[in-house]
Specification:
mainly alpha; two-stranded antiparallel ribbon; two-stranded antiparallel sheet; 7 helices; 4 strands
């Protein structure tokens, strides 16, 4: 019995010693909260986030990321300030290539709800630095229209492209799988698809030209960030314009 009690004492001594090491090492501390804590890895939204991050990482386009996060809007603020469009034929069973001159022009008009908004230059990722309403907005690697319109002026006016311009854009899109689903043909020298998508991200961190005086040093992390209120205000304005553009009637 004495030997048994001695063994139990030794076992408990080892357990307490191990617990002390774990606690002292901080291994029982709660992890830092992030917006990804409740992410379901297999969910469609998670897959879209992964695709977005991957497209930005591998793109050949000039990125908006600067060497210092303290420079206003030299980075893309991230998934939570990104507007995603999905374009497909009205008849969803139609499998014709969606990249026609008229369709690309329609896509451009839809995206221009954002990029031609009067306050867009206060929120867009910048090309040469934030300068209020005189800011030059950067082309974005996740915006499919950047592959078709060679200049900002053509993009702003949504000119009707000729077939050569369309073919050039389709060639550039080959193997850029971010814009297509599994039914698309994008593994050759040109891309063809019955549907596509595009993503327009806002810039960060926000500077005084956007907020009216306050500047931030890091891009938006989650909806507890003070910058969120500014982005949210802009998003509410965009919502009104989307309702008007798409002629959406309120349902009582």
């Amino acid at each position: 019995a004495l030997e048994y009690r001695k063994m139990c004492f030794i076992v408990w001594l080892v357990v307490f010693a191990m617990t002390g090491i774990v606690v002292a090492g901080g291994y029982f501390d709660f992890s830092t909260y992030t917006v990804y804590d409740w992410t379901i890895a297999q969910a469609e939204s998670s897959e879209r986030q992964d695709a977005y991050d991957d497209a930005v990482a591998i793109s050949d386009f000039k990125t908006s990321g600067g060497s210092s996060a303290s420079v206003p809007r030299t980075e893309t603020a991230g998934f939570f300030t990104t507007v995603n469009y999905i374009f497909e034929w009205k008849d969803s069973d139609r499998d014709d290539d969606i990249f026609t001159a008229e369709n690309i022009q329609s896509m451009c008009s839809a995206v221009n709800v954002i990029t031609q908004n009067k306050d867009w230059k206060l929120y867009c990722p910048t090309q040469n630095g934030a300068n209020g309403t005189n800011t030059i907005c950067d082309l974005q690697s996740t915006d499919i229209l950047s592959y078709f319109y060679g200049s900002l002026s053509d993009r702003e006016s949504c000119v009707l492209l000729n077939q050569t311009q369309i073919d050039t854009g389709r060639d550039a899109l080959a193997n850029v799988t971010f814009f297509f689903d599994q039914t698309s043909e994008v593994l050759g020298t040109s891309a063809a698809s019955p549907r596509t998508r595009t993503s327009i991200g806002m810039g960060g961190p926000l500077g005084a030209d956007t907020t009216g005086g306050e500047s931030f040093t890091l891009v938006l992390e989650d909806d507890t960030d003070p910058q969120w209120e500014y982005y949210l205000g802009f998003a509410e304005d965009l919502e009104k314009e989307f309702i008007e553009f798409f002629d959406i009637n309120n349902v009582p």
